UniProtKB/TrEMBL annotation:
It comes from the Bacteria. Residues 614-637 are annotated as: Disordered. The keyword Transmembrane does not apply. The lineage of its organism: Bacteria, Bacillati, Actinomycetota, Actinomycetes, Pseudonocardiales. It comes from Amycolatopsis taiwanensis. GO terms for molecular function: FAD binding; oxidoreductase activity, acting on paired donors, with incorporation or reduction of molecular oxygen, NAD(P)H as one donor, and incorporation of one atom of oxygen. This is ABM domain-containing protein.
Length: 760
């Protein structure tokens, strides 16, 4: 038996006409040879969407229908009534084990009496985001038979094994499906294997070849650190995403970023790749700066309060690690594929891709993110402009990876500058690489390279047009600026590049966004480019995931630009100022280092963050709204034989609400936290974890929800400035979204509406 499902989304006001067009041919469809079933179902969550379901005895019966007059007449009738659709608009599947694709579809038919419809709908709203986190689960539709109390939960899974692994664990199934469990006492389940659609498969709803070969929730252009981070964060949340990159093979040489900031290491801990990064990298333990051969300062970067130090790791290793992590989530970048064009409407983006061998592919996505670097095609197609124009330094620079024989301390980033009359006229930066005496050298390129441009502007970015610098060129620079007797050897790689800098006027338009070098370009000073791009992705991805699920407040995606663009502008300006100075602020080098490492990053001006405090000094010393939420240790949880960190509670993909209480909290206040916990979980559609942090002398009810964790050493109280009862809401990106002292449930719910106000 073969089933087809054709999704049709009516244009506004054409819903009744689409139903009438189906009724006009439905009787004829039922009379065709081999037809086993035909029906028009409604999308329970989209009043303009319909799904035509037909079942056929064999392939011949299906082919006769698709190529026959009945399907053609229906296609002609609905063509002017419908919006464009993707491959998910036409799916073919077989009941049973046979099929050409690995994915399966499960059709669960349930009966919902009219007097319990509100109960079912409320429960289903909670189930949908829970299911999105189940490994192997792809997506589902809730469909309803018109004029009846029969619903179909039609779910797609990556494999049959994933599905049966889930239902084979009653505890898991109950956890995710619990809110609608009462309606699953009697149900009908059918399992289908989804066919892999052949190219140019005819779609009976349009009467012509399918224009869209594939669909995804989010199309990510660019498989560098920014694009890979975006994909990992979406995939961790169960969002279907696709990553493309025009390079046929990933880079294998250290031609780009090399420094991994302390804050990025924290993000990698959350993503589960920090150990791999440490194993592949080298710690950058400090910095030394020399001017005209004299050491002007030396600073250790091994600060005891940092969760991680500054790591040296070539970008190709970063990309390898993130690519491997993404593969564990079932996503692999499609290389040798380039974005050629796209259009967008209110419901998504239609992208044309140029593939290997000169072919093309059309993809329908709900959102598109351009992480395609300095020469971004997405930025070009969106018509984004660099505010004030794209700036370029007049000098050409060269890079080289060499072994250096000198007496400098290991692990230190070294900056050598030469000044004449107080103005810098030459510079060299040496960054340690993994391997004995190995360094990345960056310095001004010899004059002959600029002469090769004919006196005209040299190409921005890394240059393929100019010859590669030689070992002699590197040695000459070291001879001019490094200590006497310094020798370079074993040149592995070299290049010439020009520094460009600027930031786009907008970070997106409609359903299309830019991030990383597609949005901002920096001088290499401070190693900001890659790390800032990763921070862009970290900010955007959790918001995109909520939008894809339909639970985001209307302004949530707009906050990406509101929060990230001012930071990008600040970082670009700071990097430009630092490029040709010995240091910005010698009076407070520690603060400057923490700022460069993004440890002081705050979204305090964001419209998403807020507070409710009883007095000006309430929560004094604690992180403010928008600030990074710092980690603390010494927490104790019953049944756990070792102390916990705060990050053990906040780690993951959801918001975290931390409610604090000490001995001054009475029994009624403690009991009220249970009601608050349930209310915020419902408001956030399950996208929030709640914990009660208590001082060692607090009175805790034995069966209290949320779970209780003891601030055994008082580190949380001291770091977050809490006393009495208070709360902190930590966002998925690790920043404080809201805080209050004492508990202010109404203000908290108002803040959550800024994030989850779109939840149905």
């Amino acid at each position: 038996m073969i089933r087809t499902m054709v999704r049709i989304r009516a244009r506004p006001g054409c819903e009744a006409a689409v139903e009438a067009a189906w009724r006009a041919v439905a009787g004829e469809v039922g009379e065709l040879a081999g037809n086993l079933m035909h029906d028009l179902l409604l999308d329970a969550n989209d009043p303009r969407a319909f799904v035509v379901v037909t079942e056929w005895a064999d392939e011949k019966a299906l082919a006769d229908y698709e190529n026959g007059p009945v399907a053609a007449r229906f296609a002609d009738a609905v063509r002017p009534l419908r919006e464009p659709s993707g491959v998910d608009g036409y799916r073919v599947m077989r009941e049973g084990p046979e099929g050409t694709g690995p994915r399966i579809c499960v059709d669960v038919e349930v009966t919902v009496p009219a007097d319990r419809l509100a109960e079912f709908e409320q429960g289903y709203v909670q189930v949908a985001p829970r299911m999105a986190r189940v490994p192997g689960y792809v997506r589902e539709d809730l469909l309803r038979q018109p004029g009846s109390d029969i619903f179909h939960i039609f779910a797609e899974w990556r494999s049959e094994a994933d599905f049966f692994r889930w239902i084979g664990n009653p505890a898991h199934a109950k956890e995710e499906a619990g809110p609608i469990a009462a309606f699953l006492l009697e149900f009908r389940r059918r399992l289908f294997r989804l066919e892999a659609p052949p190219e140019n498969q005819p779609n009976p709803s349009t009467g012509r070849e399918v224009d869209v070969q594939s669909t995804t929730d989010v199309l990510i252009v660019g498989a560098g650190p920014t694009g890979l981070t975006t994909a990992v964060e979406l995939a961790r949340r169960g969002i279907d995403c696709r990553v493309i990159d025009k390079l046929a093979t990933p880079p294998s040489q250290a031609d780009k970023a090399i420094g991994v900031h302390c804050r990025t290491m924290e993000l990698w801990e959350d993503q589960g790749v920090v150990r791999e990064a440490m194993d592949a990298g080298i710690w950058l333990t400090g910095q030394m700066v020399f001017v005209n051969g004299q050491e002007i300062h030396r600073m250790s970067w091994e600060l005891p309060e940092l969760p991680y130090a500054h790591l040296g790791l070539p970008q190709y290793e970063t990309e390898r690690i993130l690519t491997d992590r993404l593969a564990t989530l079932g996503v692999r970048p499609q290389r040798g594929t380039e974005l050629a064009a796209f259009t967008q409407d209110d419901d998504g983006v239609l992208a044309t891709l140029a593939t290997t061998g000169g072919g093309t592919e059309t993809v329908r996505a709900k959102y598109l993110v351009g992480c395609d670097g300095a020469h971004s095609k997405v930025r070009e197609l969106l018509g984004l402009k660099f505010s004030g124009g794209l700036g370029q330094f007049p000098q050409l620079f060269m890079l080289g990876d060499v072994d250096v024989d000198w007496g400098m301390p290991e692990g230190h980033l070294l900056r050598f500058m030469h000044e004449t009359d107080g103005q810098m006229d030459n510079m060299l930066v040496a960054v340690p690489l993994r391997g004995e005496s190995r360094y990345r050298i960056a310095t001004l390129a010899p004059p002959r390279f600029f002469a090769q441009t004919g006196g005209k502007d040299a190409p921005p970015g890394f240059s393929e047009e100019l010859a590669e610098p030689t070992l002699a060129d590197v040695q000459a620079a070291l001879g001019q600026l490094a200590p006497a007797g310094t020798r370079a050897s074993n040149l592995r790689w070299s290049s010439v590049f020009r520094i460009s800098h600027g930031i786009v006027d907008r970070y997106g338009d409609g359903r299309v966004f830019v991030a990383g070098d597609a949005a901002h370009l920096h001088p290499p000073a401070g190693g900001q480019g890659m790390n800032t791009g990763i921070q862009d992705a970290w900010n955007l991805a959790w918001k995109l995931a909520l939008a894809v699920r339909g639970v985001a407040a209307p302004g949530l995606l707009a906050s990406y630009e509101t929060e990230r663009r001012p930071k990008g502008e600040e970082i670009v300006g700071r990097a430009v100022r630092m490029a040709f100075t010995d240091e910005l602020d010698r009076e407070d080098l520690k603060r400057q280092f923490l700022q460069e490492m993004s440890m002081l990053l705050s979204y305090s001006d964001s419209p998403l963050v807020g507070e409710s405090v009883s007095a000006p000094k309430a929560l004094a010393g604690g992180p403010k709204p928008g600030d990074r939420a710092p980690d603390v240790g010494g927490l104790r949880r019953r049944g756990v034989g070792h102390p916990l960190r705060l990050f053990d509670l906040t780690r993951g993909t959801r918001h975290t609400l931390l409610i604090y209480a000490d001995a001054s909290a009475d029994e009624a206040t403690m009991a009220a936290t249970e009601k608050l916990s349930a209310a915020v979980r419902e408001q956030a559609c399950g996208e929030i974890d709640v914990y009660l942090l208590v001082s060692p002398d607090a009175r805790v009810l034995s069966l209290l929800d949320p779970p209780a964790v003891t601030d055994h050493g008082g580190e949380f109280r001291a770091t977050y400035g809490v006393r009495g009862t208070a709360l902190y809401l930590i966002r998925p990106d690790g920043h404080v979204g809201f805080r209050s002292l004492p508990l202010d449930a109404d203000a908290l719910r108002a803040n959550l509406r800024l994030v989850f106000g779109g939840a149905r």
